[in-house]
TrEMBL record:
<dbReference type="GO" id="GO:0046872">
    <property type="term" value="F:metal ion binding"/>
</dbReference>
<comment type="similarity">
    <text>Belongs to the tyrosinase family.</text>
</comment>
<protein>
    <recommendedName>
        <fullName>Tyrosinase copper-binding domain-containing protein</fullName>
    </recommendedName>
</protein>
<keyword id="KW-0560">Oxidoreductase</keyword>
<keyword id="KW-0186">Copper</keyword>
<dbReference type="GO" id="GO:0004097">
    <property type="term" value="F:catechol oxidase activity"/>
</dbReference>
<feature type="domain" description="Tyrosinase copper-binding">
    <location>
        <begin position="107"/>
        <end position="124"/>
    </location>
</feature>
<keyword id="KW-0479">Metal-binding</keyword>
């Protein structure tokens, strides 16, 4: 049967991130009311733009949205740290799957793509609501294209609310992203790195992911042990871009380089916006590249706080 979300009252805290990092509490606020989510039908179509190509009017809006997000009261489930905690809570053994004693984990299985799509959806709606602009959409970090191979400059300004100090200082713009990053600096030229990145993208999107289960990852059903196996993209380049961005001087490459802290960096959402885009790109490649049809996948149930700080529950990817 499909995986049931955790009971938010049953949260393990603190979590020990390991390697000497301070323990963290990322339990989400508990809510006595859970409403059934309905996808709004009255919203305008939103278009996500490349973070390297957004116009200055957009940059102003995006900065303003993040400023307001950071200024919300700490107890508000929409607040910046609470949003980061959503990722930590559902990814770092804070909860068990409801009614079981197995860890709830949205990585390394077929839940990876849909869960992160919903996480972005609510994050985006929260930002849009804060700036009262229903046309607002997150940008995407287009690290698989020649126009997007560096950390997008909008995240580099230390005075911007989009900035995060916990990033690799060697990887600031104009360093070229290494989609095969393995904690050592590549000594290839920018052109050679771009070529290697293209080869890697072709392998992960085309050669190695001819079937849905290769692309999406292994089945993960109610009662299953967590981490049955990731799909091609989740491993590379999703994971490599995470560790390339985080700071290796921190115990676990915080922020982006490890699950519990990754959501603290506003670039996380642009990174995942690109993952979300690649899901569509992959389906457009044809052949057997189609969405999964297993009902345990289609009916997996999720919990999120929405743009009005209400806890919503829904089944379906
Ligand atoms: Cu939940 Cu990019 O990881």
């Amino acid at each position: 049967s499909p995986v049931q979300p955790p009971d938010l009252k049953l949260c393990t805290t603190p979590i020990d991130p390991g390697n000497g990092a301070a323990s963290v509490n990322c339990c989400l606020p508990v809510s006595t009311t859970i409403t059934d989510f309905k996808l709004p039908t009255n919203l305008p179509m939103r278009t996500r733009l490349s973070a390297h190509q957004v116009p200055s009017s957009y940059i102003a809006k995006y900065n303003q949205a993040y400023k307001l997000l950071r200024e919300l009261p700490a107890s508000d489930p929409r607040q910046y740290s609470q949003q980061a905690n959503v990722h930590c809570a559902f990814c770092d053994a804070a909860y068990d799957v409801n009614g079981t004693q197995v860890e709830y984990q949205v990585h390394n299985s077929w839940l990876f793509f849909p869960w992160h799509r919903w996480y972005l959806y609510f994050h985006e709606r929260i930002l849009a609501t804060l700036i009262k602009d229903d046309t607002f959409a997150l940008p995407f970090w287009n690290w698989d294209a020649a126009s997007g191979y560096t950390l997008p400059p909008i995240y580099n300004d230390s005075k911007s609310p989009l900035y995060d100090a916990n990033r690799n200082p060697l990887h600031r713009t104009p360093a070229v992203v290494d989609l095969n990053y393995n904690f050592t600096e590549s000594n290839s030229s920018a052109a050679a790195l771009l070529a290697a990145n293209n080869t890697l993208m072709y392998r992960q999107m085309v050669t190695n992911s001819k079937t849905p289960s290769l692309f999406f990852g292994q089945p993960y059903r109610q009662g299953d042990e967590a981490n049955p196996g990731a799909g091609t993209i989740e491993n590379l380049p999703h994971g490599t871009v995470h560790v390339w961005t985080g700071n290796p001087a921190n115990p676990n490459d915080e922020d982006m380089g490890t699950l519990y802290s990754a959501g603290r960096d506003p670039i996380f959402h642009a990174h995942h916006s690109n993952i979300d885009r690649l899901w569509e790109v992959w389906k457009s490649l044809g052949g057997r590249r189609q969405d999964l049809t297993d009902s345990d996948y289609l009916n997996a149930t999720f919990l999120f706080y929405d743009e009005n700080a209400k806890l919503v529950r829904f089944g379906g990817v």
